[in-house]
Amino acid sequence: MLKEQRKVWISVPASASDLTHAKQRYPVVFLLDGEDHFVYTSGMIQRQSESPETGCPEMIVVGIPNTQRTRDLTPSRPTSFEGMPPEELKAAGGGENFTAFLEKELIPYIEAHYPASAHRTLIGHSFGGLLVMNTLVHHANLFENYVALDPSMWWDSENLLKQVHEALAQPRFKGRTLFVASANASGQDSVLTAKDPSISGQHGRAKWKLREDLARNPGNGLRSAFRYYPTDSHGSVTVPATSDALNYIFQPYALSIASILALIAKKPTEDGAAMLVAHYQQVSAQVGYSVLPPESFVNGLANYLLTQEGQAPRALALFQLNLQNYPTSSNVHSGLGDYYQAQKQPNFAIASYTKALQLQETPAIRKKLAELQVKQTPLGKKGSSRAKNTLKG
């Protein structure tokens, strides 16, 4: 599509190569201006995904460095623009072609070569934010989530903004989420911005028009947020806004052990497993694809109920839920083995540890199994006279 070779930077969650857990597919973030934003964005996602309380899942991050930024990230070409070199202005307006590259080349490549799910997020800053908005308006089904960081809606005499105005009035964005961040680019209040004839003033006014369009069309199916960052400039807004965008997008996923325990306390006749199933059924309906309770979270909750709360039946229900969802996970079978061992059911524990080792050889599980088997042999049972006599020789 672009008639050139393009490099991309790809970050894959470490769990993808962890053979003790079940294989899974991950949502994918496609990040424009990859050379500027890849490192902190991938690190931020890794950190936030470590706790279900943030709601952010583990994700593959695809950073797309630029070759001709103005060409690829602008959807139209102005007749003139003061301050831009003529050759750069002449190349502008290739945004649709770049979007075709994403759709027909890059996305299929990522899905063919990496454990990628079909849940996709597009993040862009400045001109990148402009392309994000153009993609939402003209290719809404290409991504589930759109993040426009201080988008350059002023470009080409607000040409795209006019298209956004018309598109948002139509009910065709069901299942899509948009987060728009607006920096205080001019360093002045809205009154001064309204009168400022400079690019900064035009930039600010265009973003406020976008905010008004989002507010006046609540019935178009789009879940959206517009957030203003009064202490951040055009350049500094990207880090806090990316974090806020992730929190907003994946808020439906958010869950904590404390919240589940609080629900259990209010509904003592229900178990945590049923509550988790109900929660993630709602999440699945909202995001449009099946989302299972995270294996590690369920295991952690089960262990807490077993060891700290003494609620063995509820813990077992959670271990069994994990087994149902992740039957090929060595870690799940090991967790169930720990449960049976704590409940003094050694034969079941041995069977679970054995299955875990069949799936993935792990020294820690091998040690647990060996110690348990020793205890189950006549020589390992304390108080056995036969064992004592044998040892005396």
UniProtKB/TrEMBL annotation:
Which residue intervals correspond to the TPR repeats? Answer: 330-363
Molecular function terms in GO for this entry?
hydrolase activity, acting on ester bonds
- List UniProt keywords, sorted A-Z: Hydrolase, TPR repeat
Query: Cross-referenced InterPro entries, in alphabetical order?
Result: AB_hydrolase_fold (IPR029058), Esterase-like (IPR000801), Siderophore_Hydrolase_D (IPR052558), TPR-like_helical_dom_sf (IPR011990), TPR_rpt (IPR019734)
Q: Which family does it belong to?
A: Belongs to the esterase D family.
Give the Gene3D superfamilies listed for this entry.
alpha/beta hydrolase
Can you say what this protein is called? Uncharacterized protein
Tell me the organism. Hymenobacter sedentarius
Hey, what's the signal peptide range on this chain?
Answer: none
Query: Source organism lineage?
Result: Bacteria, Pseudomonadati, Bacteroidota, Cytophagia, Cytophagales
